[in-house]
Amino acid sequence: MNVYIMKEVDLMVKGRTGKMKALSLVVLATFILLAGCTTANDPGPNANQGDTGNQQTNTVSNDPAATADNKDITIGFSQRRVAGSDWYTNLIRGAEEEAEKQGVKLVVLDAQGDVAKQVSGVEDLIAQGVNAVIMNPQDPSGVIPATNKLKQNNIPLVVVNSNIDPKAEAVSFVSDDPRDTGYKTGWELAEAASEKYGDTIIKAAMISGYPKELVSQYRRNGMIAGWTDFMLEKYGKSNLELVAERFGEWVPDKALPVMQDIGTAHPDLQVVFCMSDVMLPGIFTALNNTGLNGEVLIGSIDGTKEAIRRIAEEPESGLIVTVSNDPRVQGADAVKIAIQVAKGQQVPATHYIANPIINKENAKEMYDPNSPY
């Protein structure tokens, strides 16, 4: 059954550059049609980091202190999972390279996608006497027992990449701005769909990370807002029929079967919102298996080398845009902030990395065949 969302909202409307302007709108019959698709309510801004809706990227010093002062500092890194994701691998690589550069010890523990293992891993880090912990949480609320123990032991927490429950009381959050990143993706994808289909109703699917995961919710809301704002600006209405949202758990092997199910059920699918380039190989395979390869417009996030290459060299693939979210920068900046925190220095409550748009206009310039990411 199709559900028409009709409500009054106070929107912060942003153009593709990310510059924001306040605009009160009554959104009536915007044709966001949810067919067999259930989504959680948007939990709103990252409450533990303050209102970040219009926050600019903060600058982190490249030299928190002299390297000699850092030799006695040990930073723990609790990573939700590594296997199957080049993004996570590069997040750790960026952190390790920065730790070596700064002369601090970095202890990385892989929770392998298990919340209980992540909690016990943090307990191990506490026992090792770390001075600060960086965490990429597997579950925003499930890790609270671990963060409570950090607070009990006066060990500061820096959260990276994935949003966490405000109860964690993290001192800093390092990430892209997921709503802005999603917004840019949605805007670019809407522009491409407008050129191809005009203002007709567009059947779309969304491949997200995990259910109830805050970063997935923020990116989803950003994508839909970007699409809607473009269509409202151009046609005075939106035209999005979201036929399905499924969860690929940020890896291609999980994205493939859910995308294939959608493609089989909806052979007239026209658009795919993908929340991570890492899932794209599974999505492309699924579209090929269902006869939709090259027929569907795709917008994604992360800015991997392979995604940029496809945009630059394979327009027939249907990949229209990826918005950069460099894990190496996130990992490095998280280490810099953790060092500052360990020394009792002030740090930004929220640190957003740059998230430029990569599309057909600049993909050739942005493509680096020698990049490890």
TrEMBL record:
Region feature Disordered, mapped onto this chain: 43-67
InterPro entries reported in the protein's UniProt record: Peripla_BP_I, SBP_2_dom
One of the record's GO cellular component terms: cell envelope
Signal sequence, renumbered to the chain: 1-40
GO molecular function terms attached to this record: carbohydrate binding
Domain Periplasmic binding protein as annotated: residue spans: 83-345
Superkingdom per UniProt: Bacteria
Main subcellular location of this protein, as a coarse class: other
Biased composition (Polar residues): 43-64
Subcellular locations according to the entry: Cell envelope
Entry keywords, A to Z: Signal
Residue stretches spanning the membrane: none
Name of a matching Pfam family: Peripla_BP_4
Family from the record: Belongs to the bacterial solute-binding protein 2 family.
Protein name in the entry: Sugar ABC transporter substrate-binding protein
